[in-house]
Each structure stands twice: as structure tokens, then as C-alpha cells.
Amino acid sequence: MWKDWLAFSRREQYGLVLLSLLIVLLVIVRFLLPFLADPPEIEMISDVKFLTESKYSVKMELKTKSSGSRGKKEFKFTTFNPNTVSVTELSKMGVPSYAIINWMKFREAGGVFRKGEEVGKIYGIDQELLTLMSPYVKIPVRVANERKEYVDIREKRNDRNPVVSGKTENASEIGTLIIDLNKADTTELQKIKGIGPVFSQRIVDFRNLLGGFYSVEQLREVYGLSPGLVDEISAYFVVSVADIKKMDVNSFSLRKLKAHPYINFYQAREIIEYQRKNGSIANEHALEAFTSFDKAALEKVLPYLCFNEKNRNEEQKNEN
After folding, report:
1. Are 220 and 227 contacting, i.e. CB atoms less than 8 angstroms apart?
2. What value does the mean pLDDT take over residues 94-103?
3. What pLDDT is recorded for position 158?
4. Deepest in the core among 44, 116, 236, 240, taking most CB within 10 A?
5. Torsion-angle region of residue 202: left (phi > 0), alpha (psi -120 to 50) or beta?
6. Residue 162 belongs to domain spanning
7. What integer is the mean pLDDT of 245-260?
8. How far is residue 267's CA from residue 258's CA, in Å, rounded to a whole number?
9. Given CA atoms 54, 58, 63, 65 in this order, what sign does their dihedral have?
10. GO cellular-component terms in the record (predicted)?
């Protein structure tokens, strides 16, 4: 009976033979195909090579210029002010595109050129290009003298970084605009030379994270503000410590504590663990025993901390 299952009719036998021949033919073609036609990878490699050459064409152009042909390159410099020159004008002069991009970013961030050689600070403007460009750089005298005016104003002040409570210095004592860092919005901040839309927004954002400034020196912690710029603009600011928003360490959660720029996860966790084991933190002296707070870290964060402030206010109301 089992032989019946293995028996094939004449037509089925022909079909099996034909199918076997097709399979063999396909296998042979598969192995012979690489020898019969060029592999497509060759064209793909060519495309990759072309893209690679295009990607680095700007760098190769810069190397070619620096090899000695720069003096003969088609630079078409005309007199321009680096603080107002447009992208189109720089491009027509022959300035590399990536240098133009960095140039515009510098200005958008509030940067100002006060001397012709300061153009060399832009990434993509090397010394050789700067030498060719310098004779055409013209900066108005007012802008060039602003740095000296900043220094003169600061020298008139006895206190370089004043901290005032609820009041602002008389502007006539300094002879210039004075802005309270804890009250100013982005529009007011942009009245100060060197602070543009980007820096003004960063200052406000950092102030909101902190809860307010207690010193003008904290501007040095704002991302992107260089020490030199802070030195120049600090004479125009005061801070009102009465406007600082404090955190009650005994009522804030771990998530809220570590959200403050001056408190990291480990410090916030130690505060919560102390409260769980010992109850509320009575005062700042209790924090001195915390291993996660060194002296410097504690001094930075204390102006933003209070202890059971809510309970104390309720007790005072009850007594009254």
C-alpha cells in the first residue's frame, strides 16, 4: 500500500524533472551573474566619493587658498562695518560660507565688534584672510569707544556688584541706565549693549530657575555670557534681594528640590532622607552636617532656602 503513495504518473514525473531543471538553472545563473555583468556597487561607490568630495569641498578650498594662491583669489573687498554688513555683501566679497554663518550667529547672540582685529574671533576667518580684510573694516567711533565708556563707568563706582533690598541706586550717581536684574524683562535687558534677544532670554530663564538673583556675579553662570562681557555690563545692574523666591526645604518634594540649579539629586535625596528619619530641618546649621553639601555649595544655595516658613507664618497669625 505504501508503494501507492510513492508512485507517480507519467505526467507527474515530467513535472518533477522540469522543476528540478529550473532549480538547477537558477542556481547556475545566480553564481554566473557576477561574471556576466558589472556589480552595481561600483556606481554606488562613485556616488559616495562624489558626496564626500562635495562635503569637504569648502575645506579643500580653504587649503588651496592658504597654500599661496589666496593673494590672487577673487576677493572683492569693499569698505564695510562688521556690525551691520549683510550675508549677501560678505558672500560677494568672497568670505567662506561657514565663516559667514558663524559671523551672523555671533551678532545674533549680542556680540559687537569694537576693533577690526576682533573679526578674527570668528571661526573660519584665519590670520591671512583677516590681514587682507582689515584695511576695509570701518567701525564707527561711537562703537569703538563703548568699551572705554564701560570701564570709566565702573571705575566711578565704589561697589562693583551692589546688592540692594527693595530699592535701586540713584542712576545719577553713575550717570547711566541702571536695571534691576530681578525685575527686568527681556526688552529692558536688551537696552544694555552686548545683550541681544538670545542672552536676554537666557538671563530671564536662569533667573526663573533660581528664584531670583542675589548677586550680579551670578550672570557668569548664564550659558554663553563670557567673563569679559559680564565685566562690561555688570555696572548697569543691581539686584533686589527682597524679590528672591525661597523654597521651604521641609515642604518641597525631591523632584522640586533637585530642579533648582544649586541642588543636585544627591543633595535633595539627603534632605528627604533626613526628614524621614529625624523630622523637619530646623535651620541652616542642620545642613552643615550633610555630607553632600560642602561649604561653597551651602553658601550658594542658602539665600534660596527657608525652614518651616509656612508654619511660622501660621503661628504668627494665631498669636495676633
Report:
1. yes
2. 85
3. 39
4. 236
5. alpha
6. 146-243
7. 90
8. 8
9. positive
10. type II protein secretion system complex
